[in-house]
Amino acid sequence: MGAATKLAFGVFLISCSSGAILGRSQTQCVQYSYHPARSNTSGVEACVGEKDKRLHCYATWRNVSGNVELFKQGCWLDDVNCYDSAECVERREVSDIFFCCCEGNMCNEKFFYNPDRMQPTSSPVTPKLSVFMILLYSLVPIMGIATIVLFSFWIYRHHKLAYPPVLVPTQDPGLMPPSPLLGQKPLQLLEIKARGRFSCVWKARLLSDYVAVKIFPIQDKQSWQNEFEIYNLPGMKHENLLLFMGAEKRGSSLDIELWLITAYHEKGSLTEYLKANVLSWNELCHIAQTMARGLAYLHADAPGLRDGHKPSVAHRDIKSKNVLLKADLSACIADFGLSLKFEAGKSVGDTHGQVGTRRYMAPEVLEGAINFQRDAFLRIDMYAVGLVLWELAARCTAADGPVDEYMLPFEEEVGQHPSLEDMQEVVVHKKLRPKLRECWQKHPGLIMLCETIEECWDHEAEARLSAGCVEERVVQMQRNSNSTGPNDIVTVVTMVTNVDYPPKESSL
Ligand SMILES: *[C@@H]1O[C@H](CO)[C@@H](O)[C@H](O)[C@H]1NC(C)=O
Ligand SMILES: *[C@@H]1O[C@H](CO)[C@@H](O)[C@H](O)[C@H]1NC(C)=O
């Protein structure tokens, strides 16, 4: 057995045994939650976490000139910053929100502030790093192992100094100014949920709520910047647009990551949902209507909102992966990395016409023949909406026929990874579109949906429906199909058992 194998095996044994010991013990924490409007809650929380992970307790509070205002107490998931600390002590120099975590039953009952002024600042970080670079590049493999051990120790030490609640190694987020909204609220990254073209999306915990954190590498600053600017436009809060919570730069100058923090939706994207589920007619209508409503709002130019003039915005990457589903199956539109805003009197600025996801590109985009007017961009979004509506129809149980496995639009025609040429051939030259099944033509609602789909993906951009019009159509088709027909009574019943539905909202 080589030294490395032995070492790895040893580490494995140690981690297994410590996991097993910790797994058996139950952790309980003092729970408290301050609510400005309702009454405060307090009690004891039994912590639940993954097997083989440690559990901790935490507390956050303010200290206004000696007057302690408790904010929250509760369970905290596995975090190296809390290991083996029996007392809950905030050691950083902070001025606003204090945070501490500890290990042991009810250890957060008492909490203290004790800034440790003896700790070194971050200045020694850079020289240390370059020493490690030399070690890494010049020494023989045996020394390499020693380097790894030293390096992990460095990470461990470094981590202890870092902004406590963040679980991203090899970073020093303490150096970055936090965004005003998040302040110093502790954020814990939990697991990767999706990987996109530029970024990956994490599920994270911000105090007791889940949030999504989209992390961009520094090379994709442009995409982060653009999305951040779009979210910050006036009027971007809408129930069918993903809720933005903050943006941050994290890490030291050597290793910066760009973060966008948004609401988290457990059901994930429409693509994932359709892979695993079929839709009743009413579910389809609800998703289609809320998606169209979100896009109509995004497209609209709305002066005189409470926070200013919302300009018209083209999304430019509409696809089922960028439509998220809330718990009640309402859609919300996400990912504004490629979006363009249109402000009166201002030019659109530098833009490249041929962007987006090839599979969802309108014929004029595939041909590189778009004019750079606002309406041209909005119509490109509507073409993609047609394809998403087709994806919904293909997974709907309303028609009198079998429902196929989930497929991406054009997957039958061009497969999983089409080239630009493949898409041009199919969409522009052959003018093909995904197949509308014959059995869909027998359901009164699906007939209307098929017409709507065809009017969205029309080859002539000027002939396409607007998002507001699609929303109206969906309202109508749901009304028509629900008024009669024995089929629909069945689908209504399935719907009630499947989903906790909100009362139907009136159309805009
Ligand atoms: C909740 O607790 C705060 C102090 O943390 C207190 O000022 C406030 O009155 C409490 N609210 C209620 C409704 O009990
Ligand atoms: C609050 O502040 C006072 C002095 O400003 C300090 O003595 C005390 O330890 C602080 N307590 C907590 C829990 O932060």
Protein structure class: alpha+beta
| Biggest beta-sheet profile | 5 strands, antiparallel
Helix content estimate: 25-40%
The parts where pLDDT drops under 50 for at least 5 residues are 1-24, 119-128, 157-181, 485-508
Say which molecules are bound, naming each kind only once.
2-acetamido-2-deoxy-beta-D-glucopyranose
Give me the side-by-side strand order of the main sheet: 2-1-4-3-6
| Rg, alpha carbons | 27 Å
CATH architectural grouping of the largest domain: Orthogonal Bundle
Number of helices: 13
Mean of all residue-level pLDDT scores: 79
CATH top-level class of the largest domain: Mainly Alpha
Categorize the overall geometry.
elongated
User: What name does CATH use for the topology of the largest domain?
Assistant: Transferase(Phosphotransferase), domain 1
